[in-house]
């Protein structure tokens, strides 16, 4: 962040932003109270005046990353209406985010979003609303939308996790494999409506 923050003017937002800066620069291991305090130029006890624990810090950072990721996804499909193009754009946006911000992606996806958790409710609702928009051309019921969301997320995040773990070792292009998977998913989505 540059200059040290005066402890009395420190906000929870300052702490979250500093934590995100640390994770971007140094990876997931930098998401700790001591490292974030150094980034802010303060002592760790000053952070505990705003956050109860390192676990709370990790949680708040993950929620903020989810918000940013969803904003990026919404921006990526703005003005689009073709159902195939929408789904492909969402898939590529998720994969590109994971590639360009691997540590942020890891922190984000390590936190389960429980629909009964008050902190998670707005994000869960945003995800459902987003997928309702993406899947709108299919005229799914609410239940069908949930099935499609789960199928798509499992495919996108599963491919990314496999790729990040270095498990896609054969010579064939992973780009081509991802596109083949997306085209197969577009056909599979039709099954949900039957």
Keyphrases for this structure?
single chain, 194 residues, mainly alpha, Arc Repressor Mutant, subunit A, Tetracycline Repressor, domain 2, 9 helices, 0% strand, globular
Provide structural commentary.
This protein is mainly α. The relative contact order is 0.10. The protein has helices spanning 12-26, 33-40, 44-48, 54-76, 83-100, 102-109, 121-135, 142-164, 174-193. The model has no long low-confidence stretch (mean pLDDT 92). It is globular and about 60 Å long. The chain has two domains: 1-51, Arc Repressor Mutant, subunit A (Orthogonal Bundle); 65-193, Tetracycline Repressor, domain 2, CATH 1.10.357.
Summarize the structure.
This protein has 194 residues and is mostly helical. It has helices at residues 12-26, 33-40, 44-48, 54-76, 83-100, 102-109, 121-135, 142-164, 174-193. The relative contact order is 0.10.
Give the termini distance in whole angstroms: 53 Å
Question: In one word, what is the shape?
Answer: globular
CATH homologous superfamily caption of the largest domain: Tetracycline Repressor, domain 2
Strand content: under 5%
Order of helices and strands: HHHHHHHHH
Q: How many domains, in number, for the residues?
A: 2
Q: What do we call the CATH topology of the largest domain?
A: Tetracycline Repressor, domain 2
Main beta sheet strand tally, sense and closure = none
Could you estimate the helical fraction of the residues in percent? Answer: 55-70%
DSSP strand tally = 0
At CATH's second level, what is the architecture of the largest domain?
Orthogonal Bundle
Q: List the uncertain runs.
A: none
Count, helices:
9
CATH uppermost class of the largest domain: Mainly Alpha
């Amino acid at each position: 962040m540059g200059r040290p923050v005066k402890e009395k003017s420190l906000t929870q937002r300052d702490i979250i932003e500093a934590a995100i800066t640390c994770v971007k620069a140094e990876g997931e291991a930098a998401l700790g109270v001591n490292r974030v305090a150094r980034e802010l130029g303060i002592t760790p006890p000053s952070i505990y005046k705003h956050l109860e624990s390192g676990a709370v810090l990790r949680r708040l950072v993950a929620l903020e990353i989810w918000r940013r990721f969803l904003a990026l996804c919404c921006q990526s499909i703005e003005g689009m209406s073709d159902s195939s193009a929408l789904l492909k754009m969402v898939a590529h946006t998720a994969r590109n985010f994971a590639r360009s911000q691997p540590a942020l992606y890891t922190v984000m996806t390590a936190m389960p979003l429980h629909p009964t958790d008050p902190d998670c409710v707005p994000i869960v609702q945003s995800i459902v609303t987003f997928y309702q928009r993406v899947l709108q051309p299919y005229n799914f019921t609410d239940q069908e939308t949930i099935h499609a969301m789960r199928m798509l997320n499992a495919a996108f995040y599963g491919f990314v996790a496999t790729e990040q773990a270095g498990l896609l070792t054969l010579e064939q292009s992973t780009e081509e494999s991802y596109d083949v998977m997306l085209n197969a998913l577009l056909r599979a989505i039709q099954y949900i409506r039957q």
